[in-house]
Structures are given as C-alpha cells and as structure tokens.
Records
---
Amino acid sequence: MIGDIPFSVLVASVLAASAPLIIIALGEMLTEKSGVINLSLDGAVLFAAMVAFVAAKESGSLTLGFLAGGCAGMLTGLVVGYFSIYLHLSQVAVGFALSLLCRDLAYFLGNPYSRVQGPTLLSGKLPFAEMLPESLQKICMQPLTVPLAFGLLFLLIWFFRSSSSGLKLRSVGENPSAAFARGLNPGKIQMLAVLAGSFLVGIGGAAYSLSLKPGWGRPQGAEGIGWIALALVIFGSWQPMRVALGAMLFAFLQVCGIGLQNIFPSIPAQVFQTAPFPLMIFTLIFMHYSTRKTRKHGEADRGLQKWLGLLFMSRAPRSLGKSYRQE
C-alpha cells in the first residue's frame, strides 16, 4: 500500500495506465528496428485519439473507433515513410514538422467534439477471475487494452527472436546495403515496418480517448506521451521487454503521485506528477556514461560490460535515422 492506495488497486491502475504507452512505444520500436525514426509520434498520438473518438461517437462502435485510430496513425507513418525512405529527406525534419501539423489538425478538426460524451471501453473480468482471491480479482478487472498490450509484447519478442521476417527487418536496420546484397528490398521492408508501427501508435492513441482518458478536448491528457514513448525505446535499448518495463515504471510513478501526496503533504503534487520526466533524463545520461566507461576499459571489465549491457547499454540499429540510397 502507498498512502491510501491498496496494493491491488495500485497494480491494477499501473497496468491500465501503462497499456496504451506500451502499445505506442512498441510501435515506435518496431519502426526504429528497421532504421527509420518517427519523430511525429507526439502529434500522431493526438491525431489518432481525435479520429478514434469521432469515429466511435458517430458510428457508436468502439471497434470502428480503434480501427480508425490505427488508420490515422498509419496515415502519418505513410507520410514519414514516403518522404524519408523514397525521397531521402531528413527523418528528423519530417518528423518534427508532421508532429506539429498533426497536433494542430487534431485540435482544429476535433473542436466540434470537445467535451462531448461518447462511448467508453469499460473494464471487464478475465474468464478465470472468479476463481482468484478478491484482491487479485481487482487486478484482473482491466479494459481490453491491457491484454492487447501484453499480447503484443510477447508477439514482438517472438517476431524479433524467432521469425525469419523479424531477422530480415533487423538486418535492414543494421546494414541495408548488406541486406540488399542478399536479395532483400530495404525500402519495402522499412515502409512495411513504418506502417505497422504507426498503426500500433494509432491504436495506442485511440486507447487514450476511448479508455484511459475518455473523451476529447484540450488538453486531452495524451500530450507529451509521444516524446515519452521515444525516450522509452532508448531506455529499453530497443528490446520489447525492457520497453514495456520502462512504460510500467513511468505509469507507476504517475499513479503513485496520489498516494505519496498523502504521505508527504508538504510536497506539491506536481512534483510527483513530473518525476518520471527527469527520471528518464537521468537514465539516458547514465546509459551514455555506462557505454563510454565500458568502451574505455574494453576487455578489462568484461563482468561490468556484461551486466551493464544486460541492464542499461543501448544498442540502436546502426542505420537508424540514415537514408539508404539503393545503388
């Protein structure tokens, strides 16, 4: 228990709060594994959240709302992929410009639906929840976004480790020229990865407006989530399990703000709400320092290099952010 929050409620809240962020971060990780970085993430999340809410409101179907959000995310990915992969423009510049455009479009086009009540994805019990103790039943009372997030997590772990398609995607992200020499089409593989990852980003955005923070307005509640997802991919060293753990840590720190405020009433609540942001900055600095330290000592610190590699060292794809021109 933290403050007045029971342990079971804390766990349930962390799972629910982290699920959309896990989906978004894993989608970006899938994109970056191919060597393309999508910096439009923050605007894409807001745009997908708006489109999902409007579609669900007009159709009365949450399923159509989530699909519309995924398609909205895929549309932004199509723009990023086309300009970055085929026109060889700066991925950073395209991403920043598109992020601002999507954010403004989301608030402009969604203005008629601001503060309008719409459909909401409610929590439900898992089939076997009745057999569990009462405290665990509270943890199992989750919206479908939670099993979706963790199902996606294990699917991507299998995809990158055991599937031939995952191996091809990783090879393009590491060395597209070598992949082309082996008969692969780097541009096609990168575009498919960008579209798939952006679809997941859109699903995550829809989860905010249809589940975690139902409704649409300004502010919506998902502002800044795209930048956090980008940081989580680095925090997680481009590994699915670490990315998910980072998302849960971020959600845990946010949820704990309510309970910790009761324990430390003299500290403003805003301190606990903003704590995850400097934590991410500290982690990235520590990762950079750890990488330099292990490189400096080389073979002399094999034990240190091994443990830091498992925990903190980042392994970005070698071609990340670099435009590949087919000879």
---
Amino acid sequence: MDTYSTHLFIQLLTMSPSEIWVVFPIGILVIILLLGASAFMSGSELSFFSLTPQQLLNCRSSATKADRGIAELLDNPNKLLATILIMNNLVNVSIATLSNYLMLGVIDEQNGQGLEVVILTMLVTVLIVFFGEVMPKVIAGQKSFLVARFASGPMTFLNSVLTPFSWILMQMGALIEKLIKKEGYKVSVDELHEALEMTTNSDETSMEEKEILKGIVNFGTISAKQIMRSRIDISAFDINMNFAQLVESINHTGYSRVPIYRDNLDKIEGILYIKDILPYLQQESDFDWRSIIRKDTYFIPQNKKIDDLMRDFQSKRVHMAVVVDEYGGTCGLITLEDIIEEIIGEINDEFDTKDLAFDKVDSSNYTFEGRTSIHDFCKLLGIDSHYFNEVKGESESLAGLLLELFGRMPRVGEKKRYRDFIFTVMTTDRKRINTVKITLKSSKSEGNR
C-alpha cells in the first residue's frame, strides 16, 4: 500500500457517513489496491518457499541483484515468513475495515439492518480468499522463480522496515513452542511410501531409482529372519571331514566363507574362510585344517533388524552371521551381501549362476519354489512386505505360508485363495511343499476358499 493510498484510507476513516457517497469510488479504488497488495503477499509467500535447493544455489552464485536478494531473504526464512504474515494480515484487516466503513454510510442512509452487514462480510471474504489468496498462489505455483525475483526488491525493503515487529513475532512463536515442548514428528513407513509415490511419479525417475528409494525406506523395518538363507539351504561342512573331502566340497559350493559344524548345524564351530586354505592346497589328506577355522562366529537373533546388523558388521569387520532361534538352534545364515541387496537389488558376479526361484508363465501366473521367502516374493511382485502379516504366523517362506493357510500339509493340486492371489500346490514330498503356482485373482481362474 503506497503513501497516497494510505492518505486516502485515513481521510475516509475521518469522514462522516453522509460524506461517504462523495468519495465512494475512491474508497473502492483503495480496496482494489489493497487486494493487489494482499495478492502480492500471498504469491510471494508461496514463491519464496517453493524454490528448489538447486534454484536457491543458483541464486547465491548469480550476478543479478534480484537473485542474490532471494538468497539473502531465505537465509532467515522465519523472519521473512513473519514479515509476510504481518503485512498480509494488516492489508486484509484494512480491506475489511474500509469496506465496513463505506457500507455503514450506505446502510444509514437507507435505514438498512443486519442483512447488509452479512452480505458485506460474505462479499469481502470471497474477494480476499479468491483474489488475495487462491489466484496469486496458483500463479506463483506455476511461476515460482519469476514471482520470487519480482518480489525480491519490495520484500527486502519490507523485511528491513518491519524488523522490530517480526522479531517480536518470532520470539512469541519460540516461547509458545518451548512451552508446548513439541516432540519431533514421527513419520511412519506407510507415510514415507505415500510420499515416495508422489515425489517419484515422473518420467525423470527410473524404475531402478524407485526400487532403491523403496529399499532405503524399508531398510529399518526388515528383520534378519525375512532375508536370511534358511537352515535347509545352508552350505556347511562337517568338522570331521579330511582335507581331501574338504577341498572337493569347496569346489562344489563356490562360496568364499562356509560355516563349520560338529554333528549338526546347531553346533557351529566357526567359519572357514576359503582364502585361508589356499596356502595349504598341496597338503595331504591328513592335513589338520581345523586349526585355520575362525572361531569368532557372530550369532544373532531372528528378529534383529538389518540396519542394526549392518552397523555391527561394520564395527566387528565381519561379513557373515549365523541366525539362531530362541533355543539357540541354527535357523539361518545372513551375509553383508544379503543386506546390501535389499537396497540396490541383486548382486551377481561372474561366478554366480542365474538360479531364480520363480518363473513367470504369463501376466497372471507364476511358479515359485516353496522355499522362496515371503519377503522376496513381495519384492518380485511389487506388493507391500506386510501383505501377508495377518495369516503367515511365524512363517517366512511361501511353503510356510501355505501350511498356515491350509492348517495342514496340502496335497498336490489343492488351491487356496487369499485376497488377490490363488495358491496352487504343484509338487511336494512327504514333509515339504516344493513348488507353488501363484495366480492373480483378477484372472478368470477360481480357487477354493
């Protein structure tokens, strides 16, 4: 609001209601100017605070005075916001006061009553909301940098002039925040997923980048039990093997680290690093290789989160941990590579064979090995990792999930539906489900409930 408009506004306030008709058009003009000032403030607020970090960085290194002004204003965003709020509320209150004063003169002459005041209130509200808030913010949202550059000069001046008032406002806000003792906002994983979907829903973000971001979001919620290699799939060597048998077994496995057990997997003696064997390859069968077993085996519980495990691996300088149940029995094995794969996806080197645990028949049908973990199944099909939490019980594999769904050992060909999936048992042995067919519920195939 310029000096001339302010002078007119004061003059109007000092006039009697009967004199209002004389300057009524001027009063309307002042209201229009005030609406413009309100729009300027609202648009400035959105434009300044919607600039990207890259745009702000460009402003700091720019030779243009307006751009540098943007960076200087945003060096103290709380003060800038206080200045905008003070001016915006001052302008909006002035609009309401002047409109009411002009209307009172008309009402008095016409002997009007409360209905006119209600109509005036509604009209002023609509004008302020639409022209002073909605429209400028829509424009500023589309052209945020241009609007911020245009507003840089005036806002720098106002930011300086209103420093005493903005300081008081900031101090009051800090005091209230201190009294309330506001705790940090805890963001749930679901909220992070929703935010991730909104922010990555563009052609600029590749599918690989989205998967990495999802892996980071889920990282702190995944337990060792969900991604470990189960007991039945562990490659381990008996400590009673002679050296020739050991070397032959190493050639068949291809792993760089192998657990060594005595009698059974519940009695892990240590971890054998294959590189430690290399200097002794020329030794005879009776060579005592047990002396090079590393005894400092790292045992962890099933429910340990992999973000904590990652830190433990770093601090202890180990790459492998044995997962044990509540009774101390071995239930699985987890490596550093397994953890990293949860973020960046599968890691395959030149010695890995492409041994996928599933086969895609068509867009609606898949076949999976029963030992496939539920966690991996959810990742492969792009569904939430907690999708089966209500029915899986303590199971972490597809075979275990089906046992929970059936409540018994199913026969070959039996089907079970759960939500969007139909599970068909393909092959079994006496104690284990080997292969499962998965059919999406959207297909015409129907299964038994």
---
Amino acid sequence: MKYYYGEYDGEEFPTQDKLFGFDQLMQFIMQYGDQALKAIQNMMENPENENQSDMLEQLLKDGMLDKDGKGRLRLTPRAISKMQRKALMEVFANLREGQREGHEKVTPGLGGERIEGTKPYQFGDPVSELDLHATLHNALTRHGLPQSAEPASAGGPSRAKIKFDEHDFELHLHEGVTSCSTVVLLDMSGSMMRYGRFLAAKKVAMAMQALVRSKFPQDSIDFVGFYSGANKIPEFALPLAMPKPVTIYDYQVRMKVKLDQLDKAPQHFTNLHMGLQLARRILRKRSSENKQIFIITDGQPTAHVEGEFCYLLYPPDPRSTVATLKEAVLAVKEGCRVSTFALIEDYWGMDWVGFVDQLTKLTKGVAFYTSSGELANCIMESYLSGRKKKTHIA
C-alpha cells in the first residue's frame, strides 16, 4: 500500500453524503458509462454503507434514476437535463476570453441586439431603426442650417425646415439573428480513452445541448459517434457513451468487412469517412441558414467505406485518407462549414497532423490543435461565432 502526504488546507473533511452526492455520482456515470450504472445497481442491492444506500434510494424517489422493464438502472430525462446544465456552467466558468473568428452578421433592425455603429439607408431597410442624431448631423452638414421658408404670422416665430434627402439617413446596426444546424462528430475509437479525452468531449457535447435548448432554440445540434462504423447518438444515450475498447494488438491489420456485418468486427478503428456521410445526411434535412460540422478526433482515419464493404486498415492507409477527404469536400459543396478539433496530448508520437492540414486546406475550414483541457474554449467560441455570417458594410 502506498501513502501520499500533503499540507492540510484547513477545510472540513467531507462526510460520506458529500463524498457521494449527486454531482459526484453524475461525474462517475459520465466517466464510466454503463459500467457505472451497473456498479451503482450492485451497490444498491448489496449496500456496504447505509448512508450511500439511502442516498441512492432518494435519487430514485427524486426521479433522477429509474429502472427499466428488466429492473436495470437508467438515467431519467430530469437527470440528463441537470447534467447538461451543470456541464454548461462548468464550461462557461472556465471559458477564457478569446477572439472569435468574425462571423457576425450585422444588419439594420432584424431583431438582434443593437451594436455600435451605423450604416447608410438602403431601399427596403426599416425606417424604425433610424439613428436620428446621425441623420440630423448628415442633413445639417450637407445642406446647412435651415432658412426661413415662411414669414412669421401673428407675431409667432418663423418656420424653418431642415432639408433631408435619402443620402442623409443613417440606421442603427443590429447583430443579425440567424439559425444554425450543427453536427458534432465524436471520435469513439480506442485511443480516445487516453488523457480523459472522451470525458472532456462528452462534457462539452452536453454543455452545447443545454446552450442550444436554452438560448438558441431555433438551432439544431446532433451528435454522431464514429469508430469502425458510425451512428447518431441520441440525447439520452450521450452521458453513457464510451470509446470502443481495443481488441486487436497486431502490428498490421488489413480487414474487409461487409457493412451488414460490421457490428461483428473490431470496433476501435477510426471511420471518419462514415461519420461524415451520416453528418451530410442529417444536415440535408435541415433548413438552417448556417450549417457546420465539428470533428473531434485524436488520430487520422483507419477505416473507410467502398461500396458494400468497410475496410479496417492499420497502420493508416492512403485509401482511407483520400475517401475521407473527398467526403469532407462534398460536405463543403453542400454548404457546410467544417472545423476540426485535433487533440494533441501525445501527437509527438503520431504522424497525423498532416491529415488535419490537408482537411483544413481542402475544405477551407478551421483547425484547432488543442488539448482536452482547452477543448471547451475552442468549441464554444467556434459554435457561437459560426452560427452567424459575416457581412461587409460598404
């Protein structure tokens, strides 16, 4: 047994109930997925500590946990919503100030927040957004002080009129209100278990769900997990999603699997090609003004689809790279903005940064080389800026 010593900080030692509160329980579930629920169920059935058992029973009464028809524990929508809100608060508490990428859409009077600056009036602009101070200044500068046009009547003051024309009108600028559809592609290959990568990505995903639901209800956000295959991750399943365990340790793997048999093959490969295909299908059904794909990955593709077959290839093969890049280009042609978040804690031992560079150049997208700890900053800033278009005002 090993012992570790540290300086006492003076804080009160936590009791059992504080050590095993709701937040700690949710963190445990986020980190270990279905295995955590099984452990909790075993704890309820064979309690070692009465306080813990009572707390878990209380979570059932409060509607945070529930049991399915087979008696297995599951998270309730109420618990998932609370986890999302907590993730959002955690993300924004740590969100540093950063420069966004300048995708703001500035337009006169379209319901967004008023921002600094004005623009000349153009036909069709709402006159309700006239900046009276700037308009009067333009009129007086161009046409001078008003001259008396009518003589004084009955001892009253003379009436003078300020001359205006359409070039004098200035309008307030507003931040444009647009809708955005986002698909987040989560790498679920075996290597995502390292360095807490997938846990960090999952927390950001849940925070984005809470943000969209609370602040941007007109937006849509979908999550797709890609591994040897790819599937959409429903909201209730996201907290329990986990990377696929590595089952083959051979130095070289060359496998050809029929698509209808893919679930029987090793699952820990990286099939970004199939993930992009699914993302395109999802976004085709969306009518939003802005569409974007976020790719969170820690390695280059090791799988791709050709016809009715999926190829699992390690070390990475150029065929997988080419197929993936072609799919990304097709997404851009359909109006999607592609951003790649490359997790690089151990990229010094990997030869895949070149793939991200190629992807970024071909799609004219954005690449972020970041660590798990900085992932929230990059994704949130990119989402908030990417949901608006950039308009140059002449």
